[in-house]
Structure formats: C-alpha cells, structure tokens
Amino acid sequence: MAGTAAPRVDWSNWAGNQRATAAAVLRPGSAEEVAEAVRTAVARGHRIRPVGSGHSFTALATTDGYRLEPSRPGAGGTGGPDADPPRAGIEIDAARRQVTVPAGLTLRELNGLLARHGLAMPNLGDIDAQTVAGAISTGTHGTGAALGCLSTTVTALTLVTGTGEVLRCSADEHPDAFAAARVSLGALGVLVDVTLQCVDAFVLHAHDRPDRLTTVLADLPALVEAHDHVEFFWFPYTDRVQVKTNDRVPADDRPLPRWRGWLDDDFLANTVFGGACRLGRALPALAPTLSAVTTRALGERHYTGRSDRVFCSPRRIRFTEMEYALPRAALPEALDALRRIVDGLPFRVLFPAEVRFTAADDIWLSHSHGRDSAYVAVHQYVGMPYEPYFRAFEQVATGLGGRPHWGKLHWRDAASLAGAYPRFADFQRLRDRLDPHRVLANPHLEHILGP
Asked: Binning pLDDT at 50, 70 and 90, where does residue 262 land?
C-alpha cells in the first residue's frame, strides 16, 4: 500500500474520552496515495478514517480499520507559534490573498505562515492545535456577528472520495460537493488540500472585563453589533461573567507586557485555575466558592496584538465539552434554563459556560446554515460527571432549534438532526454517491447521518 504504514496502535483524543485501536495506521504523502489507500480499503473490506490532532470530543475519528494520519512532520502542532512548516503543498497567491495548504497543516502553523506573508485568517477560535481539515470539517468557529465559521473562508479543496476518485471542488467545479465538503465530518472523502481566502494581516485591540450576566444580556444586541468580536464566559453559581471584545485597530501600540501575558494566560488561566478544578473535584462542595473567587481574580485589561495571537490562547487544562448553535433571539431563554440546570444538578460544575456569535452561511451542514447564531458551550473538568448536565442542556437547546457542534459531545441522531438542517437529505444523497461502500463510515457517523 502506498504511503508509510505503522503497526496496529492505540489512539485517544486530546480530552481522553475517545479511544480506538486501528488495524493499521497509514500516512500517505499525496492525493494519489490517499486514493490508493481508499481503494485498497474498499477491496479488503476495511473502513478508513482520517484523523487530525484529536481535538474533537466526539467519536468522529475512531476506527478499528485503517487510520489515516497526516504524513507531514510537525502536523501535530507541537512547534512554536511561528514554526516554519514544510513547503510541499503550499501555494501563496499574494495578489488574491489566497493560500493553498495541506489539509494536515495545523492552525498554529498556518497562522505563522500567513504572518510571514502579511496575511491572516479573518477570524479564529481560541485553540490553534487543530489541523485545517479537522477545523473546517467540524465547523470550528470563532466569534463575530458579521463573520462565519472557518469553513466560510474555503474557496477550493481537493477531496478523495470513498471510491478513490480525486475531486478538485470549488463553486465552479463540483459545486454540490464543495457546498457539502466544507463541513462534511470526513463522511464524503479525505481532504488533501484546502484553499483559503485570507485578509491582510491586522492588529486587534482586546478588552477583557468582568460584568454581571443580567447587565450583559440587557444590552446584548448593541454589544454584539458594536464590536468586531464579542464573547463572554458565565461562571456557575454566580451572576458574574467575563466579557471579551476584540476590535481592529491600525497599530500595535499597546502590547501586553510579557509578564502580564504569562500571569493572566498561563499562570492564572492554566496553573491556578487547574489547581482550583482539582480542588473542586476532590471537594465538590467548594465549587460555588471557587467559582466566585475565580471571577474576582479575573480583572480588566486592555492590550493590542497580532490578530492570531489575540484570538488564540494556551489551553492545557483537560475538559469535556458540548456546544450548541442557537437562533440569537433564543439566547436569554437558553441561559436562564442553563442556570436552573446547573443549580439542580446532583454534582457540581467547575468550568464556566462560553457564549459566542457567528453570521449565517450557506454550507449544508454548518451550524449557522441560513441563520445568525449564538453559540453556548458547556464544559466540565476531566474526571467529573458531565452526561446528565450536557443532556439536560441539550434537551433545552433542541427545543429552541439548536444544532450541536459536530466536534463536541451530543446525543442527537439522524432522525433528530434531519429537521434541524434544511439540506440534510441532500447531504445524505451526496454521501450515497461519493461513499457508496461506506468505507469512510464508523458507528458515530452511522448514528448521526444514517447507515
């Protein structure tokens, strides 16, 4: 079989809640080698699943067949923030502000590459360890009322289908496959490379401040419209939130001192908060007190910085997560229900809930397909019970027209999801055509997309 192969090995995701043992691990180095691997899997009756950096909480990447990993060195995202990725497969069109990169490139590597060429992604989430393929395939997003998920920046992609066919997809070539493959869960084929529409490099002014949830919700539409990027974190058992706004500015004239960045983003957000979580797991009765103390420790700050360095933060504390995209108007009702759920649980919640915003798009399985969305993400510290908590909020979110984030925990099935996505049946029909043998399937995909 083309490409390098490794013997049967175990795999787990970043959170440690998903594990699998593959029959073989393949690292093909080209589209042709990926296609050969897929055709071999079909011929031998095996299934094959692409795997990125393991930052999804669901079982999307699990398989007992062939596990397909990026063959590039550094694809795990362990290099520095400006690590220079290998040049193979990278094309830069500076005039059009477009880049074509291997799908296994990490967002961290992508951000460094773009910065060196005076470019940037228009928006990002707060974690940069994901591969480009993993991020767009699950609908990874940042926050911004006028901005969509990362997949909306994709202008073309190369897809190896479940039959081993290599398709170059764009709005002009195989438009249906393009409309679906930008958020496809790896169910239509293996992404080989992706062309992204970037923007000129820019600087952000960040403002982090504490506030009360009631105050924020009372003026939320105006707050969201007044800033390029808005998000906030609600701390359980309190009425306190931490609001984060980011806006474009012409100059990086207020950089965060290195000591302050270390204190806030490394020591407080990781070391101290991690210690508080461990204490809360050992002594759950302390959780409300710890949550209140945490809100007081997070003060106000202003600073400027390169866009990706403001968007992305180090995340070393392990947790589990579920996130739902809701119609924006439903957010206050959802948060009111969330507070009641947290107060009524037989166990404590140690992590804050996160709220973000995105604009509508036309991608078939995007969480924001056809509507502006508010996202509510609920978390629980690793080792703490989470399923009753997540399921209770899922019931509320589903009743409000919510759509679950594909890379985060949820319990929806194909029958339930079909009514949430107007193009769901179209996606299923395209899947029948591009992967008729279901060589790319696994039990999780069969549950959420149908057998």
From this structure: confident
